[in-house]
Design a protein that fits this description.
Blueprint: H1 3-14, H2 19-31, H3 38-45, H4 62-73, H5 77-87, H6 90-99, H7 113-125, H8 131-145, H9 148-158, H10 168-184, E1 186-189, E2 194-197, H11 200-217, H12 220-236, E3 250-253, H13 257-264, E4 268-273, E5 277-284, E6 287-291, H14 303-312, E7 317-326, H15 338-345, H16 350-356, E8 359-369, E9 372-373, H17 379-389, E10 397-399, E11 402-405, H18 408-420, E12 425-430, E13 440-447, E14 454-463, E15 472-481, E16 486-493, H19 507-514, E17 518-522, E18 525-528, E19 533-537, E20 540-543, E21 551-554, E22 557-561, H20 573-582
Parallel strand pairs: 3-13, 8-10
Antiparallel strand pairs: 1-2, 4-11, 4-12, 5-6, 5-7, 7-8, 8-9, 12-13, 14-15, 14-18, 14-19, 15-16, 17-18, 19-22, 20-21
Helix pairs in contact: 2-10, 3-12, 4-5, 4-6, 4-8, 5-6, 6-9, 7-8, 10-11, 10-12, 11-12
The structure holds adenosine monophosphate.
């Protein structure tokens, strides 16, 4: 297929904001697409060459594209840059420059979808020395043969920023329409832009089947190909496969214990809600894989978990759902998620890290066992499996702590115990609920204390040690006391690890911000003019003699820098007193 056809589709989709019109356009296009092209088309419609769960990227920076445009259209990089500035979009800039290029193309072949897709694939796979030049060359090759409008979308796709507005819902519905439209008799009202299936129920059934296949395959290109080649039977045959991650089931939040019971029914299974890191673990004999909730493969990062699974779960072929919780190797106490978050992306010193920040695996669900899918089995049956086949050992692997009750008082006590043990709250689960991948269904709800975030002022810091000796790493936070008109300390954040991660700032950046505000230095400690306000989340407010406010925060985490707030607008002591006394866990 010529790339131009796809580009025309992009363009018309971009011009409408109406979801149904988009669905119609995509569906009609898919209907006319050859089976050989379908997978590439679906991926390119999403602006990607790999399905979402595959974390590989093209790794192309704007700089390379500027070079490629300059090379293809025979103009200086400065000219490309100024056009980029003018239009604000490098794709639009490429389109404009392609129209006005000096170098006439002597002979050019029309770009095909295959050519574009294959070049993108090659770009993604290039690594090591010379990769930048070769990637640039590959982009330039495409741009040279591209029509102006094609150049616009090549650039956006290469930048992994297509933005035409085809969401998952549109894609799913288009697949239904394209491949099952005839059997449901869908009519499209061009004027009112509405879709009228003759039989809504059947239509919904198809939508559900496509969605179910997608929840397992995580790849619309595979779903579409199946639908086109094998119809409903094909979709129904989609099964779990060990080694291929599926979307995890998600939970909604309940307001209270009472509300939780109302949502899941009585009796309910109530479990500790561990504050860790979700792991979907797949085992096929000796091959064990660990995926995150975003379906990234983190097997290499958690060697100890592989051992626990091997030694403590009977069975050869299964998929389980669990939460890995960090603990302090000295005190054996659970640690909040932040303490282990650095393990997820780590590529080196993995063994040391696993000794310094070990995890305990708390298994709470099973998705497949000994080749049999448990997706449609009630939760109470799934729980039986994990209880039966897991040999528990403290600090290695356990089944999630659970009670089954209809009694609110008992539930409340269990909830308090979970918080006292340093966990986040509890999960309520419907005993009959099935496992719904990807869905936030009401079969499980979570109850955890709602904490209002605090705006606090940085009043002190400490220079780091070793590799971090050039940075300030530990920040003393203060609230504002309106009566005393003074800043009172309430805790520290950023002593280690990734407490800053959520804020998207690094120690270096904070150091740069704070350095000019240093009032006094004593050893490694510095005092700072109160000026920078940051928003902080925490687990709990505690009474504490350590800080001048009389309170301390348990597990503070930085959410963002509030440069829109003045220091005296920080949370005041009165508010902290109120939050302390209304905390649910007391
Ligand atoms: P949240 O991230 O607040 O939406 O809460 C849901 C998350 O809690 C899940 O994705 C799991 O990672 C985690 N979790 C911890 N303990 C459990 C449990 N016993 N059952 C289910 N999920 C749990």
């Amino acid at each position: 297929m010529n790339y131009e056809r796809l580009v025309k589709l992009y363009d018309s989709i971009e011009k409408t904001t109406k979801r149904l019109e988009k669905t119609y356009l995509v569906a009609e296009f898919l209907r006319k697409t050859d089976v050989d092209d379908i997978r590439q088309i679906i991926l390119l419609l999403q602006g990607r060459v790999f399905p979402k769960y595959d974390s590989r990227t093209l790794g192309v920076a704007s700089r390379m594209i500027i070079k490629a445009i300059s090379k293809s259209y025979g103009m200086t990089e400065t000219k490309v840059e100024s056009e980029w500035k003018r239009t604000g979009d490098l794709g639009d800039a490429a389109e404009y420059l392609a129209k006005n290029k000096k170098q006439a193309t002597l002979f050019s072949t029309k770009l095909t979808v295959k050519k574009v897709f294959n070049n993108l694939l090659k770009i993604a796979k290039l690594e090591g020395s010379g990769a930048v030049e070769r990637k640039t060359g590959m982009i330039a090759e495409l741009l040279t043969s591209a029509e102006p409008i094609e150049a616009r979308y090549i650039v956006r796709t290469v930048l992994e920023d297509l933005r035409v507005g085809i969401g998952e819902g549109v894609l799913r519905d288009s697949i239904v329409w394209a491949f099952f439209g005839d059997s449901i008799n869908i009519n499209y009202d061009q004027e009112k832009k509405i879709i009228e299936p003759e039989n809504r129920e059947t239509y919904n059934m198809y939508v559900e089947k496509v969605q179910e296949a997608y929840d397992i395959l995580n790849d619309f290109s595979e779903v579409a190909e199946l639908a086109k080649t094998s119809g409903l039977k094909g979709l129904k045959s989609v099964g779990l496969k060990v080694g291929k991650p599926i979307k995890v089931m998600l939970f909604i939040k309940a307001k209270s214990i009472k509300d939780a019971f109302e949502r899941v029914g009585k009796p309910a299974a109530i479990e500790y809600k561990y504050d860790g890191f979700r792991m979907q673990i797949h085992r096929n004999k000796d091959v064990i894989k660990i995926f995150t909730r975003r379906l990234e493969d983190v097997t290499a990062q958690f060697p100890e978990v592989i051992e626990y699974v091997k030694d403590h779960i009977e069975g050869n072929n299964y998929i389980i759902d669990a939460e890995a919780v960090g603990y302090d190797p000295k005190t054996k106490k659970y640690l909040p998620f932040q303490s282990i978050s650095q393990r997820i992306k780590r590529k080196y010193n993995i063994k040391e890290l696993s000794e310094d920040f070990p995890v305990e695996l708390n298994v709470f669900d099973v998705i497949m066992f000994e080749g049999e899918s448990f997706l449609k089995e009630p939760f109470k049956e799934r729980r039986k499996i994990i209880e039966k086949y897991i040999k528990e050992e403290n600090l290695k692997i356990r089944t999630a702590k659970q009670i089954i009750t209809s009694d609110e008082k008992e539930a409340e006590d269990f909830y308090k115990r979970s918080l006292a043990d340093g966990e986040e709250g509890v999960m309520f689960k419907n005993l009959e609920g099935i496992y719904k991948p990807g869905a936030r269904v009401g079969y499980g709800v979570k109850v955890k204390p709602v904490m209002e975030s605090l705006d606090l002022v940085i009043v002190g810091a400490e220079w780091g040690e070793g590799k971090r000796s050039g940075w300030l790493t530990s920040f003393t936070l203060a609230c504002y006391d309106k009566e005393k008109e003074r800043f009172l300390e309430i805790g520290k954040v950023g002593t280690g690890i990734k407490e800053l991660e959520g804020a998207g700032v690094t120690f270096e950046q904070l150091t740069q911000l704070i350095k000019p505000l240093i009032k006094e230095e004593k050893g490694r400690s510095v005092t700072i003019t109160p000026q920078i306000v940051i928003e902080v989340n925490y687990e709990e407010i505690q009474k504490s003699p350590t800080y001048s406010s009389g309170y301390a925060l348990r597990f503070p985490r930085v959410i963002r820098i509030r440069d829109d707030k003045a220091p005296d607008e920080a949370s005041d002591t009165e508010m902290i007193r109120r939050l302390y006394s209304t905390q649910r866990s007391r």
